[in-house]
Model the fold of this input.
Amino acid sequence: MVSGPALPRPARLEWFEEIVVPHLNAAYNLARWLMRNDDDAQDAVQEASLRAYRFFDGYRGGDPKSWLLSIVRNTCMTWRRRTQRGLSTVVFDETVHGAARESTAEEQLVDAGRRSALRDCIEGLPVDYREVLILREFEEMSYKQIAETAELPIGTVMSRLARARQRLEECVSGRRRAAGV
Amino acid sequence: MNCESARQLIDQLLDEELDAGLRIEVRGHLADCRACLEAYARLQDQKAEIQGYAPHYEAPAALVASIRAAVEREAAGEKAALAAGTKWRWAAVAASVLLAVSLGWNFATLRSGGINRDMLEESLLTSHLRSLIGTHLLDVVSTDQHTVKPWFNGKLDFSPDVRDLSGGGFPLAGGRIDYLAGRTVAALVFHRRQHVINLFVWPVDALAGASPWSRQGFNLVHWESGGLNYWAVSDIPVSELQQFQALYEK
Ligand SMILES: [Zn+2]
Done:
């Protein structure tokens, strides 16, 4: 495909509806897991969507979801770097997250407990591991799609995914032991 | 297969990323090795747990609305900028002809039937103006129709009819791929004195319309011939546009 000249306006809006809008849930889910809060996730998806609109020339066909999610993750990663630059020490996600949240009554229930344990443990994974896990388990992407989206070699995708699962397993079973489940 | 190899492959087994041969080997090992089978079962449990218990976040409706609004604003801004930017350029170009030939455009396939005649006109004008303002006027530069026509092979799902009208004062300059209303079209470029003519060609439908008519100071002429729709848009007088039409139809 020839690299395109700019689309006329109505076609670009139509294109946006077809290529971007259907994947906004996936975009938000990824951003929400990467940023770990709703406000930042919404901002990131908003900015990423506008970037997608402006730089649609970069879309060379292929899987539109991978393309959009790649813009989303780049936006999120850039923001994370920017907001962490002022800190003197490397911030590990585990410690960022570490502050114990007050358990609500509802979360005493087993299901709710499982939910919060899982959420906390996934959020506690280093962001590089978390990213491949989310793309694999939530978006059900193939290794190849993950490699494209996260701009990684496929071998790195596999090793990060394996480590993510291992860490998640340790974290979840640790929480269970602590809870006496 | 030993345990070490098996452990390295169980993630790929779980994710259905193994080819048939390795899949059989790993499964064979799991059938004989309780430790590896348990490791695999833990992975399966974890996957199920994530699917069943981890939150799947959905984009809030307000966010989607806000994104749409932002994109619409952006689009409106571009249009204004484009219009402002074309004025001086337009003076320099003095006059130009935009011509569109349609070889069968299936409006029904366009999303939500959103394309109407207004949008088509706007798309034609915008594409033409962009080609004048930007650097992307030609992908293939040639005055020879036998060079330009084959250049489109494999780039389009149809084959445009390319003619050199230099005998009539409209020499061929080349062509490019362009986009109109969400589909790829051929754009043939001709010269008329110092003016540029874009001739857009794309697969047809039976869009009937009276012609000529005017829009934003441009004249548009539409005719049908040999099962094709032809669209000519110009800021030159209608009479001259119709002369072009007559030549092209000859
Ligand atoms: Zn084994």
Q: What stands out?
A: Chain B touches chain A through 54 residues (CB under 8 Å).
